[in-house]
Write a structure and sequence with these properties.
InterPro entries: Cation_efflux (IPR002524), Cation_efflux_CTD (IPR027470), Cation_efflux_CTD_sf (IPR036837), Cation_efflux_TM (IPR058533), Cation_efflux_TMD_sf (IPR027469), CDF/SLC30A (IPR050681). Belongs to the cation diffusion facilitator (CDF) transporter (TC 2.A.4) family. SLC30A subfamily. It comes from Nocardioides thalensis. The chain crosses the membrane at residues 18-42, 48-65, 86-105, 117-140, 152-176, 182-200. A 3-stranded mixed sheet has the order 1-2-3. The chain is mainly α. The protein folds into 2 domains: 10-209, Alpha-lytic protease prodomain-like (Up-down Bundle); 219-296, Alpha-Beta Plaits. 66% of the residues lie in helices and 11% in strands. The model is unreliable at 1-9 (pLDDT under 50). α2 (15-39) runs antiparallel to α5 and α6 packs antiparallel against α7.
Length: 299
Amino acid sequence: MGAGHGHGHAAGRHRWRLAVAFGLVASFFVVELAVGLLSGSLALLSDAGHMAADVVALGAALVATKIATRPDRSGRRTYGSYRAEVFASGLTVLIMLGVAVYVAAEAVARIGDEPEVQSTALLVVGALGLVVNAVCLVLLRAGADESLNVRGAYLEVVADAAGSVGVIAAGVLVAVTGDGTWDAAVAGAIAVFVAVRAVLLGRQVLAVLGQHVPEGMAVDEVVRDLEAVAGVAGVHDLHVWTLTSGMNVATAHLVAVDDSTHEAVLAGAQAVLLERHRIEHATLQVECAPSRQCHEVDW
């Protein structure tokens, strides 16, 4: 009655790319934070906070690829430890929101002040950050099409690159106008950008934890495709959710035309779920008629 497919760890093949990117981003975070504190630049500090969140995100991606391959010796984790990535992403959301609130509050507090900001520090660190991000983008691009885990890290670095561009813009504006308030203005913009990304990521985390239907998948289409399998008379009690990034799971009861078609129905349904909907693990029950218990279940 049960059927499933093994989950390939595409991210594991690109783990070294994540490790190198993590090292580069973490090192630059220390530099940017130090220069931001010494120069008094809120734009640098805000981007450093954004970078800190990305360090956590890249670290979580690294840890998740390791934990996902670890065998369960407790006998209590029947789904393994795939959700580690989701919990780490939730932590990243909290950090990003905290950074955004702090930077926004500081930017508002500086309204009316004329802070002395070193434009040279902004330009140099911003340019260095852009170089680091460019290297990381080249590293992660190769694995972004194969693994959602790597793709998430890739998109984090894309956002970092945008933050570095903002720091450079702040440096140019301060140097040209001599007005240090541009630093706070750019910092506020970066804070809004980080907050929006945190909210979007938070919605994805909650959708996974809430066991919602995977994004981009329509349950009605899944039902129609299963009903189109030869030998299937009906489908009920279908549940589809995401266990972790790139790993969709499904359970369903399939009503077969007769007993002789059970094996063919099972094989056909597996193929449909995998090829058309990228559901690698499916637990399917084939029956001749819905049981009374199935009718009584309403979830």
